[in-house]
Amino acid sequence: MVDAETGIVSSTTGSNYYVRILSTLNRELLKPSSSVALHRHSNALVEILPPEADSSISLLSDAERPDVKYSDIGGADVQKQEIREAVELPLTHFDLYRTGKTMLAKAVAHHTTAAFIRVVGSEFVQKYLGEGPRMVRDVFRLAKENAPAIIFIDEVDSIATARFDAHTGADREVQRILMELLNQMDGFDQSVNVKVIMATNRADTLDPALLRPGRLDRKIECPHPDRRQKRLVFQVCVGKMSLSDEVDLEDYVSRPDKISAADIRSICQEAGLQAVRKNRYVVLPKDFEVAYKINVRKPDNDFEFYK
């Protein structure tokens, strides 16, 4: 506010406006960073908006809360235990102090009463400069206001790759987003039950500053399932399918190909579709064979990050 009658408003486009303030508005509610509405013609300040977070950042309601249970995830016993120790237990047992892929995060949200805030890393990269860091602040403010809460940032590598000498405005903006993320994680009050989970397929590209203890205290690898875990995933995926007695899942479990749990799910879905296309209610071995050939991918290069 310049005085009781006028003020300066900054828009999301970067423009500043010297505006008249409607006489009926409560001046005590006008504070720096307040969200306001302007008249479309006169640009007069006509309304003070509630201090809500960005519309693209929201909590999942009870109806939207993931229904994935730990029992729905085949295998991954060690990963389940680690993520429960790091995230779930501190949120359900508040006396425990400082104990941090998508399905595991959803299972954590289902098994706790914590508010669940999910955002994809690329959503922080906005058209206008400064919008990304503001969204990061909004996410953490929303989490603190609704604690206990879980912030799940998927594909974090889109904003948290190792820093370099940026030559474009877009690169500099991404680095500012990363700096704001680091600052917010450093500013956590340990008495506030807010936990951060991040998921990435490119852990080798992440900035070392993000990985240091105190920010991300625990790294949980979700590798390709071993033979036992393949069997468990297949059992979960075919649980509601009508299989022929001739189908031998152990044949696919014992194959040496490196396949992920998502690959196994796709194999089972494709096998079911093969049966539907042939107007059959029962899935035959040849359906699984076709589905396996369609979905099996070449093994990815391994790298020593979690060892």
UniProtKB/TrEMBL annotation:
Ranges for domain AAA+ ATPase: 93-226
Transmembrane segments: none
Location(s) in or outside the cell: Cytoplasm; Nucleus
Keywords associated with the record: ATP-binding, Cytoplasm, Nucleotide-binding, Nucleus, Proteasome
PROSITE patterns: AAA
InterPro entries: 26S_Proteasome_ATPase, AAA+_ATPase, AAA_lid_3, ATPase_AAA_core, ATPase_AAA_CS, NA-bd_OB-fold, P-loop_NTPase, Prot_ATP_ID_OB_2nd
UniProt keyword DNA-binding, yes or no: no
Family according to the record: Belongs to the AAA ATPase family.
Name of the protein: 26S proteasome regulatory complex ATPase RPT3
